[in-house]
Amino acid sequence: MSGRAGAWVLVALTLGATAPASGQGPPQAAPPTPVAPPGGQPGANYVVGPQDVLVITFYDQPELTGKFTVETDGSFTFPLIGRVNIGGMTLRGVEAELRRELVNRGFFRDPQLLVAVESYRSQRIYIVGEVRTPGAYPLSGDMRLVEALALAGSTLPTASGEAVIVHQSDQSLVLQPTSAAVAESRDGGSDNVVRVDLRELENGDLTQNVQLRSGDTIFVLRAESVYVFGQVRNPGAYPLRQKNTTVLQALSLAGGVSDRGATGRIQIIRIVDGKKQEIDADLTDFVLPRDTIIVPERFF
Q: How far apart are CA 66 and CA 50, in angstroms?
């Protein structure tokens, strides 16, 4: 649990422990502790929706504490009040609405309560592509890209250094990343498509840690390959997971040059406009996706 989520739970526990008892009789059992969202954020700005399960902790009257499921019309039934319509409200908005109803009906002067989400069911995101466990996941609180990728088990070794986030629009949900969507994200031609540099994110650039919306689809793209053959230890195809990969770096993917390899006569075979080009390459030259690197045998 993150430090912020832990502090939130500690505050809730402290408030529950110090809340004054109401009425006479044996001590009441401690109210259940509100559950922090899986993403580690309190999620006060989370918009409540149908089928979400809320935990409402009532400090003035512990017997009013309980779990409540939001129905399809965006309402639920709360003791003393009856039906409460909370469609489109945030968690803090639900708290304010409950306080208002309880005060207006004369039950309390200043009710102390806390609303949290035990089960996120109304808002979902979709993670597909080069991740370990693709699928649909609940959107919890103020979830961002890093948390979503963690839910999907992180990226695979075959993943590229880029991800495309498609925000839900009026059109049907896209199940495959289209070339048009990718092109729009590169050119900045669509507000519904965001392209993220995962390598920059790994290096600490938090501007790449995009905040997600309900209905978002995250595509983790497959890395394009470079082919390494000839006098190397492990010839084959290797994914280019970073930009500006040099010939030397590509050779290292293949285990390096063998004892019989000639590093001074390396060639790159590249297809340009359907035509084959043979390029004499230095170790510091950059390779492109689908290049074939040939390491010849030494003469002596």
A: 18
